[in-house]
Amino acid sequence: MPETELSEAARGSPPDPAAATGRATSTRPTGAHRIASAEVTGFFDALPHGTVLMRLWARFGLLMGQQLARVVRDDHVFLIVMAAVVGTTSGIAAGALLAWIDYAFRLFPRPEESSALVRWAAVIGVPVLGGLAAGGLHFVLRRLIRQPLVQSIPAVIEAIARKQGAIGGRQAVIAGVGTGITIGSGGSCGHEGPSVAIGAAVGSVMARFFGLRMRWHLAMVGAGCAGGLAAAFNAPLAGVVFTVEIVFGGAIGGNIGTMSVFVPLIVAAVAGTFTSHAIRGEHLTFTTVQHGDAMLAEMGLFVALAVLAGVLGTLMGRAVIGMTKWFQALKAPVLLKPALGALGVGVLAAVVSNDVLGGGLPTINEALQGHLGWQLALALLGLKIVATALTVGSGGFGGVFTPSLYIGACLGTVVGALANFALGPAAESTAAYALVGMGAIFAATMQAPLTPIVMIFELTRDYQLILPLMLGCILAVFVARRMSPRSLFQEVLHQQGVVLGHEAEVEVMKRGHVADLMRPPPRTLSEGTGAAEVRRVALDEGRSPFVVDDTGAVVGFIDADLLAKRVLHGDVPADAAARDLMSDVQLALLYPTDTLAGAMLASARAAVEVLPVVDHEHRLVGVIRRGDLLAHYSDKVLGQQEEAVHMHTTGGAVHGHEVGLGKGTILDHIVVGRRWAGRTLADLALRSQTGATVVEWLRGDAPLALDPNAPLQHNDVLAIVGTREQILAARRMGPTHPGVPVTPPPMRP
């Protein structure tokens, strides 16, 4: 939201190094400084950089953002303009990536069919050469640039969920160069993942360059994703749906907020598609499918295709995850791992067919034309899964979108051949089954049905098969979710130990173990302990002791509260022993390796404060208290949720989102600049001048009383409630002086 007068005064405020680098520092900034750096809008000082040139470049970007905001003077229009800029730039980046991939195909030598020896040498040697180059890029990232690799969808999801969308430009450049090398040399992967990652990096870099407020930063990252995918595949609708369903859906559980996030995705996708048309011309990625009208009798075969796709899509994801874990555990230099994966791909191609090399668009088009034989399709079906797992798992640059479409086309070809055998010439063509198989495998791998439905339709412009396509995608996701609770991208993040915000409540308690919170064991009582000793321990010490047998195994416990009631009523015989006074409640025994989620469930069912932790002989090794479980849950889950709520409702947080209060009323925040510093709320008279009402006054992290005669200070934060027009009018108010009325500018519709 443009803050032309208020925020301009904040220049000169101490910068926040953590905000500049995207990494936490050892010293937490003060509340005022944290607020100032988190609310960067293009009107604050440039954050520090290493060189004078970089500082001048950052200042130039901030000034451009300021001037653009002053010209537009409307936050909706400003956001749309920025989304269009990000979408256009993402389209240019996607076009450059595709051009580089085409050049890389010509850069690497192709196998010669005239000589078997030369063919084997080229088919095996060229991918290995590309793998060595990819390993070199990994080395550059880790040792020289010292930044993590962001070239895939999971990395983008993690950046949105945990790093406020911070992605470096150098990471995108390395990802683009590596993608061209990997695909051009024959790696079994596609360019769609890097296209999205590069688009996300474009959005992140441009948001920082123009100094956008943090609440718009994620919107620009999403706009870059939508624009990059739309430009790469000439599919604007698919770009929007993909970003909402997979990227934002994976990062924040599908909660994309208001239209201030959704509209930029549409604008960026349209801008990216127009840019792609200008660079490459309007084109269809895949050839037109020749088919008739699907018969009702064939719906059973389409259902079978969807079920098989659900199984194969899950197996493909498991193969990629398994191969990734294997290469991570392999004791070999990072430089060599992509080359080892490429060696495996080259051997598969040399033994069977060159069709397993690269993304496989020619093979997909053959299947869509009905020219792919079912025997070859059946062989390529399994080999492509292995080749993709080798390429991606070993560290090759590329995504799994195109390979999943490849596998789906092969599966559809096989099922289509079966349909022709069973139903004769009246059956649909194998091309129709290949098309549905492409969408079904994609949906099963990503566990997202909407994106492939829209994408396949846009890639082929074929509406006649929309019903089998929808049925296949939905059923494939249904089957895949029965086989695995997480999609490929979610499983990748899970293996990396990344817990997304909407998964924290479950994962935090599942990943913790009883041993983490276990306390030392208290003194126990034997079964034959007399009533006097039991009363002393249970009543005088005020605890419920555990009772053990002759071998030391826990056999029960004595409820101190229940024992006290029995003593008052005279129901405890003098000769009673501990075994006679034990509670009738079935005691749950925990092991140190049990999860905290299981311990919390056992505590709730047993309705006791302390549970015993035992070894395999049921001997007491410790105890776990219900209070410790609740405290852990509160710290790890509720504390994060409270922080998230704080971030959405106060200005001193990372995101600074506005909050809709219903019927056009919103809650937003204004950072006080020097031109308002020293004035009072009475001097400003915001309510009488604009209609907006101040409901909270923060100084650092501390709320202040709303004293109308107390002076404001630089970097104070005012929480204001009103309509969007009223808050915009408050932001545009100029400097004030005591006793001088303020005339607000005319409000815009």
Highlighted features:
alpha+beta, single chain, five-stranded antiparallel sheet, 30 helices, 749 residues, 6% strand, disordered N terminus
Give a verbal description of the structure.
This protein starts with 16 loop residues before the first helix and ends in an 18-residue tail after the last helix. Helices cover 58% and strands 6% of the residues. The N terminus and C terminus are likely disordered. The chain has a five-stranded antiparallel β-sheet with strand order 6-7-10-8-9. The protein has a three-stranded mixed β-sheet with strand order 1-2-3, with no helix packed on it. The chain contains 30 helices and ten strands. By secondary structure, the protein is of the alpha+beta class. The longest helix has 33 residues.
Q: Strand order, biggest sheet?
A: 6-7-10-8-9
> Rg, please?
32 Å
Helix fraction, binned, reads 55-70%
What proportion of the residues form beta strands (DSSP E)? Answer: 5-15%
Number of helices: 30
Please give the largest β-sheet. 5 strands, antiparallel
Instruction: Count the beta strands.
Output: 10
Shape by Cα distribution = globular
How far apart are the termini? 15 Å
Assembly state (oligomeric): single chain
Poorly predicted runs = 1-49, 254-259, 638-657, 735-749
Quick check: average pLDDT? 75
The assigned structural class equals: alpha+beta
Transmembrane segments: 77-100, 120-141, 218-244, 256-279, 300-321, 341-364, 376-398, 404-423, 435-457, 463-480
Main location: membrane
Membrane topology: Multi-pass membrane protein
Protein name: Chloride channel protein
